[in-house]
Amino acid sequence: MASELRPDEAAGALTEIARRREQAVALAIIPTWFWWAIAVLMVGFSAVVDTETHRPLVIGIATAVFVLGILLATGQLVLGMVRRAQPRNDLLRPTGVLAILGFVAAILAVSLPTSFALKAAGIRYPATAGILLGAVVAMALARRVRVGSRSGWARVALAVLLVFEGVRIVTHSRAIDVMSAQRYAGAAPQRVTALPDPFNPLAWRGVIEGPGFAEIVPLDLAENFNARGGRLYRAAAPTPAMDAALRTPPFQVFIRWSQLPFWRVTPVEGGLRLDLIDLRFGAPDRPGFASVSAIVDRSGKVLRAGFGL
Question: What residues form DSSP beta bridges with 291?
Fold first, then answer.
């Protein structure tokens, strides 16, 4: 007489059946052409980026084709998945589509920043390395993330964020080195600050401080740096009016917070207008929100001081 099936054995058998069912559905729904399309796009992107060094336009076109090609292939795949799953809606849940989109997003989020960061750092075959890393990370995440698992998607988001920030750390150091190697207004920089673009880890806004000036210059590590492409601002000479303004509460609060303060002095009727600007968030001709102002008369008395004057 056959022995009764224990509950743990039954649970294990059901789990194995579900796992093999998911594998069969995945193989049936995701066609071979999708993997070939992804492979061709990866190889083409790597070949262009690794061989082109002096034509940024060509690299930009290759990047656009790579991204659009992956998005179009993924869109076609998802539409096909939906059509094939219509007779059995339980075979394709919304989280199944999200899993495919997450896989593609992982490839783009890892391969593109890594490729351009390595290229900016002068590493040989940067796109090949970036593409390989993106593929490895995406496949590892696809194997570990279970469809519908919130904790799995949290790991994906965290991994993508860590990769993005890691690339940003590398490119920040490179941006500082590139800008520090130049001369501005005929002088070597005294301090160089690189401020990141919110989306592109290769794009930076440089603030160069030198003797009697500050210069704001754009930098894209995917292109050749033009040290003369910035905007130069002459620093105002120290005056007693600045000391008077700094004794007011608004200026005291601002100077404790500001990391890149820059004075702008404008003559007005009866005295001077003083603006203290944080160059992290604005420029002397476009102060933005990060500035404080004061009106000081000829005797050195502060008539008004505050934000938004």
Answer: 277
Q: For the segment 103-160, what is each residue's pLDDT rounded down to a tens digit?
A: 777 777 778 877 777 776 667 677 777 877 877 777 666 655 554 444 555 555 556 6
End position of a domain, from candidates 107, 142, 176? 176
Same domain, 26 and 116: yes
Check if the beta carbon of residue 51 is closer than 8 Å to that of residue 136.
Answer: no
DSSP structural state of residue 90: G
Q: Is 303 helix (H, G, I), strand (E, B) or coil?
A: strand
Sheet holding 231-234, edge to edge: 191-196, 203-210, 213-220, 231-234
> How many domains are contained in the chain?
3
Q: Are 77 and 56 members of one domain?
A: yes
**DSSP classification of residue 180:** H
Question: For 63-118, how does the pLDDT look when each residue is reduced to its tens digit (9 = 90+)?
Answer: 888 888 888 888 887 777 666 655 454 445 555 566 667 677 777 777 887 777 77
The reply to whether 254 and 199 lie within a common domain is: no
Domain of 216, in residue numbers:
184-233
Q: In this structure, are 241 and 143 located in the same domain?
A: no
